[in-house]
UniProtKB/TrEMBL annotation:
The keyword Ligase does not apply. It comes from the Bacteria. SUPFAM superfamilies: Restriction endonuclease-like (SSF52980). It holds the Pfam family UPF0102. The keyword RNA-binding does not apply. Keywords: Endonuclease, Hydrolase, Nuclease. This is UPF0102 protein SAMN05443633_11652. InterPro entries: Restrct_endonuc-II-like, tRNA_endonuc-like_dom_sf, UPF0102_YraN-like. Belongs to the UPF0102 family.
């Protein structure tokens, strides 16, 4: 596996650990629908939390969350809608981003951005 794929997998694992430690129930990882993939779907406080994980080895060029484009948002929203219908989930949905970046000592720092985007922003 390519080094960047290893880093992405590690970042997703860290995001799952972070969410679980903070009371989220992980429902599914890497949910795919058509061209879209949702990294993590979780549940907490009667909400479905759709989470995009973005990892970068540096933020010199852009912050990880800046890589979530309008096109990516549309795909995520489409996949989330399909998931809700397919699994008969009648809960409100929140879209979050978790970023993973190394600090100056190469420790990986997890940042959770809640309500990172709204479904209607995708139109």
């Amino acid at each position: 596996m390519a080094q960047h794929n290893d880093f992405g997998k590690k970042a997703e694992d860290l995001a799952v650990e972070y969410l679980q430690k903070n009371g989220y129930k992980i429902l599914v990882r890497n949910f795919r629908f058509q061209k879209a993939e949702i990294d993590i779907i979780a549940e907490k406080d009667n909400l479905i939390i759709v989470t995009e994980v973005k990892a970068r080895s540096t933020d010199a060029f852009m912050l990880p969350q800046e890589a979530v484009t309008k096109t990516k948002i549309k795909l995520i929203v489409s996949a989330a809608n399909y998931y809700l219908e397919e699994f008969n989930k009648n809960l409100e949905v929140r879209f979050d981003i978790i970023t993973v970046l190394p600090d100056e000592k190469k420790n990986l720092i997890v940042e959770h951005i809640t309500n990172a985007f709204e479904a209607f922003d995708a139109n």
